[in-house]
Design a protein that fits this description.
The chain is an alpha+beta fold and 150 residues long. The protein has three helices and eight strands; from the N terminus they run ββαββββαβαβ. The radius of gyration is 16 Å and the shape is globular.
Length: 150
């Protein structure tokens, strides 16, 4: 599998999300995604892309794109992720370790900053086209993005 880093423009989209603080825990992440997914279905909307973000030190966010008109409730926040410039890579975690991807992308961005191609690097996020625990194709198309300022 060939993997390459690139700059792109990420479109904006509306998400329903839950934030929490604590250590990284895959069971907790999955439970939060399922809670948001259930809420979206109960609200009569359709889920879109799944977004997992690091919001600071030991702070996390599980968000799912909302297709339809809904209002926030039951601890679920609605917000719009604005269009932004990102450095991105799409890969299959079964073939390439996420550690290698994160390390490689971070190093690549460090050199882009030294060469003055970008001004700063923001937070990271993982984007899946569907539920990665139920759809193996979504898992195989994991996309990691770092927000960048050009």
């Amino acid at each position: 599998m060939t993997v390459d880093f690139s700059f792109a423009r990420s479109p904006g989209f509306k998400v329903a999300s839950l934030e929490w603080k604590g250590p990284w825990n895959e069971k907790k992440i999955r439970a939060q995604f399922e809670r948001v997914e259930r809420w979206i279905k109960d609200a009569g909307a359709r889920p879109g892309r799944y977004v997992f973000r690091e919001c600071g030190e030991r702070r996390w966010e599980a968000a799912i794109e909302v297709k339809g008109t809904v209002r926030g409730s039951k601890g679920i926040r609605l917000k719009t992720l604005r269009p932004t410039s990102v450095a991105r890579v799409v890969f299959d975690p079964e073939e390439i370790s996420p550690r290698v991807i994160y390390h490689g992308l971070s190093d690549w961005l460090r050199w882009r900053r030294r060469e003055k191609e970008i001004r700063s690097v923001g937070g990271s996020r993982e984007i899946y086209p569907a539920n990665p625990w139920r759809d193996p194709r979504a898992w195989a198309r994991t996309e990691v993005q770092f927000v960048v300022r050009r």
